[in-house]
């Protein structure tokens, strides 16, 4: 079994679209309106062009993918930190923890090593029956909820990767907000 982690390119768009539609089919069946659940070729192309999209391949098959939206990009998260967008694993491989493995790699190789990010965030539907608990087991902490007009309430969650850098980042955020 050969595992490869890498950034996706436009050449990966068909496999990426197939993975997202398969991964989000159960969410769509619940009536939760995540953008990835209704992706098409045009949305995937734009997504790959605007964000960092990474995947885990097992024996050359894409089994999990995660999008990293940047604070300076067209769709930043709520905290001024890198933010997870579309995240999914191929349901044919349930129980292999490929999504967890990909997030671990992303944290170490991209968020900490490359971006020096103190933390990152994600959003999920509070009406989803198990995602909040799954993300909490992965170390994410609930922050606040909001209505983005998608037919569900979004819960924003944050995971601290480096306590010291996070504390410094919070202090800078406070100075920026207060003008001091």
Overview of this protein structure:
- The chain is α+β, with helices and mostly antiparallel strands and 180 residues long.
- It has one domain (3-178): Gcn5-related N-acetyltransferase (GNAT) (Aminopeptidase), CATH 3.40.630.30.
- 36% of the residues lie in helices and 28% in strands.
- The chain has 5 helices and 7 strands, in the order βααβββαβαββα.
- It has helices at 13-29, 41-50, 98-112, 131-137, 163-178, and strands at residues 3-7, 52-58, 61-69, 83-89, 119-125, 141-147, 153-160.
- A 7-stranded mixed β-sheet has the order 1-2-3-4-5-7-6, with helices on both faces.
- Strand 2 (52-58) and strand 3 form a beta hairpin.
- Helix 1 packs across helix 2 (41-50).
- It is globular, with a radius of gyration of 16 Å.
- The protein starts with a strand and ends with a helix.
- The mean pLDDT is 92.
Produce the secondary structure layout.
Blueprint: E1 3-7, H1 13-29, H2 41-50, E2 52-58, E3 61-69, E4 83-89, H3 98-112, E5 119-125, H4 131-137, E6 141-147, E7 153-160, H5 163-178
Parallel strand pairs: 4-5
Antiparallel strand pairs: 1-2, 2-3, 3-4, 5-7, 6-7
Give a quick set of tags describing it.
single chain, alpha+beta, 28% strand, 36% helix, 180 residues, globular
Concise overview:
The chain has a single domain, classed as Aminopeptidase (3-Layer(aba) Sandwich), CATH 3.40.630.
Cα distance spanning the termini: 54 Å
The major pleated sheet works out as:
7 strands, mixed
* Helix residue percentage: 25-40%
Strand order of the largest sheet: 1-2-3-4-5-7-6
Low-confidence stretches: none
What CATH architecture do you see?
3-Layer(aba) Sandwich
H/E order of the elements? EHHEEEHEHEEH
Tell me, briefly, the overall form: globular
Tally the beta strands.
Answer: 7
Structural class category: alpha+beta
């Amino acid at each position: 079994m050969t595992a490869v982690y890498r950034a996706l390119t436009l050449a990966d768009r068909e496999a990426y679209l197939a993975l997202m539609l398969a991964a989000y089919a159960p969410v769509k069946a619940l009536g939760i309106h995540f953008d990835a659940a209704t992706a098409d070729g045009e949305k995937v192309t734009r997504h790959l062009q605007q964000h960092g999209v990474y995947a885990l391949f097992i024996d050359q098959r894409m089994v999990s993918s995660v999008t990293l939206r940047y604070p300076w990009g067209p769709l930043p998260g709520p905290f001024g930190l890198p933010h997870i967008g579309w995240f999914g694993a191929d349901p044919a491989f349930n129980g292999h923890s490929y999504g967890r493995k990909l997030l671990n790699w992303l944290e170490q190789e991209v968020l900490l090593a490359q971006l020096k990010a103190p933390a990152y965030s994600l959003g999920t539907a509070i009406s989803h029956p198990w995602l909040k608990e799954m993300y909490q087991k992965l170390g994410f902490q609930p922050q606040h909820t909001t209505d983005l007009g998608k037919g569900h309430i979004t819960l924003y969650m944050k995971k601290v990767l480096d306590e010291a850098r996070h504390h410094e980042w919070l202090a800078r955020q406070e100075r920026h907000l207060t003008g001091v």
